[in-house]
What does this fold into?
Amino acid sequence: MRWTRLVLGLTLLILNIGAASDSLIEFRNLAESVKQFSRQYGFKETKNFRDFSSTGQHCLYYHPKSRIPFSYLDMSEKFVSSAILSEALEQARVDPDRYDAWLYINMVFAGGTKITPAFLKKKKSQRDQAETILHEDWHDTANLPYHLEEASGELIKIAGAATFLGQEKELDQRLKEKLNWENSVNQKHAELTALAELLAENQIPKPEYFTKKAALIKYWPWNEGITKIAHWHSYSYYFPLMYRLFYATGKDLHKFTQILLNLPPNINGNAPKWRGSAKQYFHNTRAAEIRIESYLEQIIQEFTCPKSHAIGQAPPLLNWGGFILP
It folds into this structure.
């Protein structure tokens, strides 16, 4: 009986290793095809998903319970080895009584993220895998402030993967569902932010703040916690703008990416870099994003209302990516 169990165990182990090897080969082939496909939209060659690692990275995001962060840029973070929140808090020496926290397990990131068993297990479908590759490679291609880069990356991954896989018929529905979700995140974040502002302005006492905050996040998915909501907000805040821009171009993904890759220097300059404090970086990011947001609204206006100019008046010409509007 013992030998039977041992043989069975070894057989299952060999089968699992073989399946994992097949999954890795299939993913690498898919990644190469997606990367080649993305070149037509101006994507650069990147180091993402080139190498394999048996382990992933875990990042602990945290912030004081008395405030609502705008995004992941607006909170503290520490890399930890444990994938268990309580252990991660202890490793990072973060007091759970003072801080809200969320643990990003086996995170995927630009700048050379590796293929891990956890990634292959979580992202099983070709669509999920293609979307993740496109999103992370967009980060290493674009030079945008991060909230705009995250939101545009979300739209590009959905539209790009749909085109790559020949699933264009599903695109409108998927983008509509995505927009509805991002709008719900934005609304919930706005409610929480307004509540935190009341506390900051001493208009409500702390006990009332915590009671009302708990009520706002009582039900799923908001019971994932404030830190997770703020992390979602990093991607959701500018998604409605990206959605409108994409449809203003007639769902032309090439035009969409070229607009964002060729912003005028006086509008974008260089995306803020990590210099000085994280707080200053966040404020620099928001200042740049507000300029770009205003410019993109002009682009949308030119696409959607080309005849709105006064008779006899030449319409303004907005030059982007080699194209001249209107």
Observations:
- The beta strands are 58-64, 76-80, 99-104, 319-320, 323-324.
- The chain is about 55% helix and 5% strand.
